[in-house]
Specification:
CATH architecture of chain B: 2-Layer Sandwich
Number of helices of chain A: 13
Helix content of chain B: 25-40%
Number of domains of chain B: 1
Strand order of the largest sheet of chain B: 1-2-3-4-5
Shape of chain A: elongated
Helix content of chain A: 55-70%
CATH architecture of the largest domain in chain A: 2-Layer Sandwich
Oligomer: heterodimer
Shape of chain B: globular
Strand content of chain B: 25-35%
Order of helices and strands of chain B: EEHEHEHE
Number of strands of chain A: 8
CATH topology of the largest domain in chain A: Beta Polymerase, domain 2
Number of helices of chain B: 3
CATH topology of chain B: Transcription Regulator spoIIAA
Distance between the termini of chain B: 22 Å
Largest sheet of chain B: 5 strands, mixed
Structural class of chain A: alpha/beta
Radius of gyration of chain B: 12 Å
CATH class of the largest domain in chain A: Alpha Beta
Number of strands of chain B: 5
CATH class of chain B: Alpha Beta
Largest interface: A-B, 24 and 18 residues
Structural class of chain B: alpha/beta
Radius of gyration of chain A: 31 Å
Chain lengths: 355, 100
């Protein structure tokens, strides 16, 4: 009779629950976006009637009314890294009203020698200052559960659920020990992913400042340093000169496809690219002049700057047509046209005394 | 300049015939407009009969590629004659558009 009353209340409130779920998910999407946070998952659900019935059969004595059940609306955020759980929980605390008495940080509940389920569960309400609907006043009173966990914590929770790990009596000791070891590995991996990400971010910030400082010989050439160097627009003067040939428009495209070419050319530091820029810019411009003058082509890609610099550098280094063919193969894949193009450019380079 | 459009499976095959220059670029733009909408954005441009493109043509190809990429599609140009390919090479457009 008592449980029937709660189930009736549940059925009446389904539209309210749906609205709460939508408001919470939309709010979280907006907050995550505002804070440049990318998560693996943001999902919500309304507890099914079957699931609620099961809960009431087991623990119905604990609940006087449906208001005492706090997880009918459940929303879960799955982060990529465990340290993001704390960042997101701080945002959640600022956004929603938290029922601290009923919220649980399961990450802090474990004994020091135990591994296993770790997740942050907040019981919340939508504050009227965030969202309200005069036709649905209960919207700001009904509580919902918000779970926050990393993707590895999520993996563990799902595995645990599938294996039935919680019911320890059913699992022999040796298997429990294996599962505990696995949980420890996941926790360790979770922390290591966060640490590695932080180290990579620190490295990138350091690289940006090294590149910006202009000590190019001290900056090793890799994808990150090359990107930072490109952001300085090192070829803008050459680009400007090339556009003046036909009063052309410059189309800003990426130079990143040339990273592999530079590596194949034996460049080790950003300083090596700088030297090529300083030593070969005039010839690179002369090559563009020979190719573009009189064509009327009044649009050129920014990458034509590095393209011509690499061509000139390869020829000056004595790698000849074969070197150019290898450069084109690195950019566009192996094809017969690469050698034809290399041969044409080699003859043009001879005309303007690059070689 | 003639543009022939054929739908094939999930992609569109486009045959380009003639030259693209100031005299016909507006017609070319009109002809390729249908390619800038729809749910199957993948395009293969057969350039075996394309004899020349001016920079207006390059701009059209760039615009078409942007539209295709915005719909998560792919655009490739195939069978390009060497004299047309040279236009793409010296302007750096070979670095922007996939030419097979």
């Amino acid at each position: 009779m008592h449980c029937e009353m709660i189930l009736d209340q549940y059925r009446e409130r389904i539209p309210l629950f749906e609205r709460i779920k939508d408001v919470v998910i939309n709010t979280l999407k907006q907050k995550l976006s505002e804070n440049n946070l990318f998560v693996n998952g943001l999902e919500g659900r309304i507890k099914t009637e079957a699931s609620l019935t099961g809960k009431l059969e087991l623990k119905g004595y604990k609940y006087r009314t449906i208001d005492d059940i706090t997880d009918i609306v459940g929303v879960r955020i799955i982060t990529y890294f465990c340290d993001e759980v704390d960042i997101i929980s701080a945002i959640v605390e600022k956004t929603f009203e938290i029922d601290w008495e009923n919220s649980v940080d399961k990450r802090k509940m474990l004994e020091i020698d135990r591994f296993g389920y770790m997740s942050l569960h907040y019981i919340c309400r939508i504050p009227a200052s965030l969202y309200n609907d005069p036709e649905m006043p209960m919207l700001n009173q009904v509580r919902f559960e918000l779970q926050m966990r990393s993707i590895l914590q999520h993996v563990w929770a799902n595995m645990q659920h599938d294996i039935g790990y919680k019911s320890t009596v059913e699992i022999p000791v040796e298997h429990q020990r294996s599962l505990n070891r696995l949980a420890g590995i996941l926790e360790l991996a979770d922390e290591q992913f966060s640490i590695i990400r932080k180290e990579i971010n620190d490295y990138r910030r350091n690289v940006q400042s090294m590149v910006a400082s202009g000590n190019f010989d001290e900056v090793p050439l890799n994808g990150d340093t090359f990107r930072s160097y490109c952001n300085l627009k090192p070829f803008k003067h050459l680009a400007y000169k090339i556009t003046t040939i036909n009063q052309a428009e410059m189309y800003e495209d990426s130079l990143m496809p040339y990273y592999n070419v530079l590596v194949h050319m034996g460049m080790k530091t950003i300083g090596d690219i700088e030297r090529m820029r300083i030593e070969s810019s005039d010839s690179a411009y002369q090559l563009a002049l020979l190719q573009l003058a009189g064509t009327g082509l009044d649009i050129v890609a920014y990458s034509v700057t590095l393209q011509n610099l690499c061509i000139v550098h390869i020829l000056k280094m004595g790698f000849g047509e074969a070197g150019l063919t290898r450069m084109f193969a690195s950019l566009y894949g192996e094809n017969d046209y690469n050698a034809q193009r290399a041969s044409r450019i080699f003859k043009q380079a001879q005309k303007i005394n690059i070689i | 300049m003639e543009v022939t459009i054929n739908k094939q499976d999930n992609k569109t095959l486009v045959s380009l015939n003639g030259r693209i220059d100031t005299s016909n670029v507006e017609k070319f733009q009109h002809d390729i407009e249908p390619l800038m909408q729809g749910d199957n954005p993948d395009i293969v441009l057969d350039c075996s009969n394309l004899t020349y493109t001016s920079s207006q043509g390059l701009r059209m190809f760039l615009m078409l590629q942007k539209s295709v990429l915005a719909r998560s599609g792919k655009m490739v140009m195939t069978n390009m004659r060497p004299q047309v390919k040279e236009v793409f090479d010296i302007t750096g457009f070979s670095n922007i558009i996939t030419i097979l």
